[in-house]
Amino acid sequence: MAQKEQLIMSAVIKRSLPPHDGPVLCVVDMHTGGEPVRIVLSGAPAPEGRTLLEKRRWVRQNMDWVRRVVMLEPRGHRDMYGVLLADSEDPEAHLGVLFMHNEGYSTMCGHAVIALGRFALDYGLVKAGEGPETPVKIHCPCGPVQAYVSQSGAVRFHSVPAFTLATDVTVDVPGHGKVVVDVAYGGAFYAFVRADRFGLDVCTSRTRDLVDVATAVTASVKEQVKLSHPDSEDLAFLYGTILTDGNDAYSEQPTANICIFADAQVGSDGISPLLLNGRVTPEPENGGTGFLIAHGCSSLRITKVPILSITCCIERQKPTVLFHSRTTGRFKYSSTNLQNKS
């Protein structure tokens, strides 16, 4: 931040705050299609650790007061999402970030990445290029994520490699009996299950009912399914459950899903991903099986496709797909961009 802006911020703080004897946190509030992102600019201690994942552990154990102050009431709310800036060990990263929410700390967040792309340019961390897009490399706890900020302000990004951990896993969910779920990773692990398995509809059922079911599924999967990640055990945790509409065949009609993560928090991104369940038909020569979790407000289940590093841009897939987010409206998901159409 420029020296002049620092002086202005300091003057504003001195003028607007009542007498106090504690630390002063300066934050920037942003949103992505209505999803909140609160970025801590200054006032928080620098996280300790050699790597970003080590810093995440240190913050959780030694600095959780920052999360509670900026995420929870009276300054925040149960659906607030936050970012703590941290030094990255990656020399090519423009910024390192730690994600936080109403329950703790995530490893990836799509809507926050989109906001951070704009933040990096708006606050001069990255100089806008002369081309149609400016690349911004964001080091997240799950790994490097490449955002692209267009001159119009739109943002797309490429995330870390996504993969399926398990399919057709049966878990016992209290009150619902045996439930079959899939578990996949795209920066964070999610369980996936059709809403109609519980007699619910992701578009018309009460949000409270959907949240209760998803929360029960999450608890059961955490208890009964062992998660693992090839890079780090710090990534081997279940972030939440995504209820799908069950529309597996490709169609020009939007598919609908709802994502419940952390402490019953409702989101539309992945990085709280939504699942486009089998909506993209792969090229015939592709082999293998995998979930492609697209964290730019969507996730993709694709069969017979290699594990790729993707998110808002799926370079080997041609069809344009529409999906309806319960929280942020309708999006167009194509090979080049993700646009909010509402």
Automatic annotation (TrEMBL):
Gene3D superfamilies in the record: Diaminopimelate Epimerase, Chain A, domain 1
Tree of life domain: Eukaryota
Entry's transmembrane regions: none
Catalytic activity: trans-3-hydroxy-L-proline = 1-pyrroline-2-carboxylate + H2O
Alphabetized InterPro entries for the sequence: Pro_racemase_fam
Coiled-coil residue windows: none
Pfam family for this entry, one: Pro_racemase
PANTHER family, A to Z: TRANS-3-HYDROXY-L-PROLINE DEHYDRATASE
Homology family: Belongs to the proline racemase family.
Designated name of the protein: trans-L-3-hydroxyproline dehydratase
